[in-house]
Amino acid sequence: MATAVAAALLSFVTGCGDDGTQTANAPATVADNNHALPEEAVPDEHQRVEVTVDETGFHPASIHARAGGPVTLVLTRVTDRGCGQEIVFPDQDIRRDLPLNRPVEITVTAARGEIRFTCGMGMLRGAIVGHVPDDSEQPPAGPT
Fold it and tell me: What's the CATH architecture for 24-132?
């Protein structure tokens, strides 16, 4: 009995299906994953960030990236509730529909400071924060 409970808990925690296959790409629902949605993120090695859109907002809402480089947001709206049917980058003149449970990719160049984005009504908000690397991240200068 204890092993069955442990296996069920492990399956729930790891996101595995009944057959043991990984289901991490399945859309998250707010009811069972609200506690696990990130508020901040950095792009992966391909400069991509997966963003979930639900009735409470964008998750993550704050994306930290190197200024001057491209960042691709892969947005997936997981609920019909709320005003997340559209994303708007007001300063970039970008407006895109977000169909339910279908990923939408938007690539922008991270600027120094913030690039803000909102839902179509301006109620849900997020930002890409562009950071300039400090001198410690630069390769050492050669002999002069």
Answer: Sandwich (2.60)
